[in-house]
Amino acid sequence: MFIDHEYIEGLLKESKDATREDIQRVLDKAKLKKGLEHKDIALLLQTEDEGQLRELFKIAGDIKKDIYGNRVVVFAPLYVSDYCVNNCVYCGYQRCNDFGRRKLTREEIQEEVKILEKMGHKRLALEAGEDPLNCPIDYIIEALDAIYTTKNENGAIRRVNVNIAATTVENYRKLKEKGIGTYILFQETYHKPTYEKMHPKSLKGNYDYHLTAFHRAMEGGVDDVGAGVLFGLYDAKFEVLALMLHNEQLEKDLGVGFHTISVPRLKKAEGMDLTMFPHIIDDEMFKKIVAIIRIAVPFTGIILSTRESAEMRTEALKYGVSQVSAGSCTGVGGYKEGENGRSVSQFQMEDHRSPLQIIKELIEDGCIPSYCTACYRQGRTGDRFMQLAKSGQIHNVCTPNGLMTLMEFVLDYGDKELYEKAEKLIYNEIEKIQREDIKTLTIKNIEKLKNGERDLYL
Ligand code: SF4
Ligand code: SF4
Asked: What is the mean pLDDT of residues 286-290?
């Protein structure tokens, strides 16, 4: 299998005695933005010196600014089913947990979607546990249909990413035909013995089948895949290097690597005890990981969920995170039922701010909150997307689209305070657009939005 454990362990062993000078050489190389080798990444993971850490964060921040500007894509998860046949020891949905499980009916999905649309969301991540009997692929296809067809005044969900269990080429083809955005699947841990320990006696316990899911997804026509590791299950340094190997294997075999990488950290969940996990990472290590991933794969989006606190999210946005969830509920039917509902959460959240509050705070921090889904709808997916990203031209679409979707959000879901803050930001940002034709078009489109038009994008 392509995650060569001995190779990774060898790299980590060699880098253990890294001197300050060794690490400095890699930092100087990273500044050139010409890519890093595996041994460079292993060395960066050893950085402990405060001055060098500052330098590492600065390089990651500069790369982020160059490629993504100050936009931040906002989305929300939608849990449709908590049936699960697996027993992942870190998850609130593990089959040993005894609670009334359920899946949403079409009507219930529509109700949840309407609430999400009223919050201003345009981009969702559909989440479901693994249960071939209670939650078969046809149910997921139905759920996607319910989501895409539920409109609510100006509200519409324009892109649904799907996070469901590893499956067959045939099932991935069905998802593709139904118009999914990114197919998301977390490897959880790339370390095989740990993987098997964390997923005892279950469908998900087949490491190789799980690891090759993206190959099957792409064979089934899915263009964009999103990876992730649950940091805390095993040595984070091993996981970062393994993520790189997985990404490179996809590039080699299918011409395009990860569209996104998610960086969840292990959190308390129903039926588990955090003290069982010796590899929990602290905030400093977490920030270092985000920065190193940003430097190592500059064109791959980094996603952060509400597992992290508002403070950590603000901080990580500086070093490389490009997408955040907002106003999330991590239980089935959670949006309608609110905090006192009967749903069990998959994990505990730290950031409980509403999307409106998050949008205001992002603007205060100088970010452009974006609800853009343009690439997917323009067919800029897979290698077409990567080519545009790598050419450095993606700025020409991301910023205007971000500004237009922000204006739309403000007009439909904002209050007076947000209108004032956002309008100032929008016109300041338009001033910075270098191509005159794009600047003019953006100004025109902002006016059109104010006059009632919607869903404008480049
Ligand atoms: Fe089921 Fe997924 Fe939770 Fe594992 S992580 S128990 S597969 S919902
Ligand atoms: Fe994402 Fe494409 Fe929109 Fe940029 S233009 S924010 S890459 S969907």
From this structure: 97
